[in-house]
Amino acid sequence: MSFTLQGRTTLIAGASSGIGATFARAVAGAGGRVILAARRLERTQALAREIGSAALAVPMDVTDEASIAAAFDTAQAHFGIVHGVVANAGIGTGGRSTDVPVTALRGVIDTNLLGAYLVAREGARRLIASGSGHRHDGRIVLIGSITARQNGTGDALYAASKAALAHLGRQFAREWVRQGINVNTLEPGWIPTGINSTWFGSERGRRDIAGLHRRRLLAADALNPMLLYLLSDASAQVTGSTFTIDDGQSL
Length: 251
Known about the structure:
single chain; alpha/beta; Rossmann fold; 7-stranded parallel β-sheet; 7 strands; 44% helix; 15% strand; KR_dom; NADP-dependent 3-hydroxy acid dehydrogenase YdfG; oxidoreductase
């Protein structure tokens, strides 16, 4: 079974670093065209130069509906229909729930949940308008987290936003099931990224890693095979599902 993305265009929100940038390279490596969407345009432009003509960098703030629409406009003008959407933009905020300021809490909800909602909705609107109901080629992947099913201290709202994201994926899948759009959620385990690198480099963070069953963090490219599957024709009959890729961290 081939996971080729030849002839397909995928927009990745939050593509400026971390797993978003890793996803972008994987999509291009599978023969697809990729739209690198993020606020940090200088980073996505550098990544686009690295990838080559199959990549286009566009500015996008996932909390701003007009910014999202403009990014899709630019993508369509350059590459045509956007077949796949990866809602990957996310932020976290650390601290006990009694201490985190409300401005930080709003930022988490606006980026992780509302942002994913708006990006997926814009992608679905355009797919439906382009006739995805006849082609059955729409693919939307929401990037969640294993924290959606774990209890801990210091990330309560982040974890709750990821739990909500998994249910949002099922809701969208049901709503768009007859429009030829598959919606699935990918829940990765702990991966070293810009969000958590300081923590995992700390003494307590190193103890957390040692406490994992395999005593290691997940490699960033460990998600690529499942992502390419969910974006490709191979997943034609898969929608409304949640997939955990975590190297056994949540066992």
